[in-house]
Write a structure and sequence with these properties.
Length: 173
């Protein structure tokens, strides 16, 4: 099989490459504070080098810093792009959202309890209705599948005649 040097695809090596990338992304999430600090230092160094370049051209210090920052662009956007390139931005968002939800639960416990109980009742009701519907409609009544088990129900009293008991049809259920 041909080798694609840019992606590291070589027969079974593709799986190894995927595993290495996944492992690196997992480690990056646990080292995210250090990676953020390194990125901040790199951004500051880049802006400082650009500022020095403008100073060597004879631009005053404040103007050189302003031009360097403008040339670099949005620092916040660069940080966000850096986080996304590490491939775990969704995990950071999940952690942030979970912390926010827990803080909200602690702030107003009465409302939280009401919401949790309402959701629990709604889920239980939905499961019950779905189970009954599946038992009655999807699987059908057990006697409808096995006609040999059908029996005729009648009510008899002391008179010699019996009358049949009416049972609602399956369609009415």
């Amino acid at each position: 099989m041909d080798t694609d040097a840019s992606s590291g695809i070589t027969g079974g090596g593709y799986r190894v490459s995927l595993l290495r990338r996944a492992w690196a992304r997992g480690l990056a999430w646990f080292r995210r504070d250090r990676l953020e600090q390194e990125f901040d230092e790199e951004v500051r160094a880049h802006i400082a080098l650009a500022t020095d370049d403008y100073l060597q051209r004879g631009v005053p210090l404040e103007e050189a810093e302003r031009r360097a920052c403008l040339a670099f662009g949005s620092v916040a956007a660069s940080k966000e792009a850096h986080r996304e390139s590490r491939g775990v931005a969704w995990l950071d968002a999940l952690v942030f959202d979970t912390r926010l939800a827990l803080r909200s639960l602690r702030r107003d416990p009465g409302f939280s309890l009401t919401v949790i109980v309402t959701l629990a009742v709604a889920i239980a009701l939905n499961v019950t209705v779905t189970t009954v519907r599946e038992a009655m409609v999807v699987r059908g009544m057990p006697l409808a599948r096995d006609s040999q088990r059908l029996a005729h129900l009648a009510m008899c009293d002391s008179r010699p005649t019996c009358r049949a008991v009416r049972v609602p049809s399956r369609a009415r259920l």
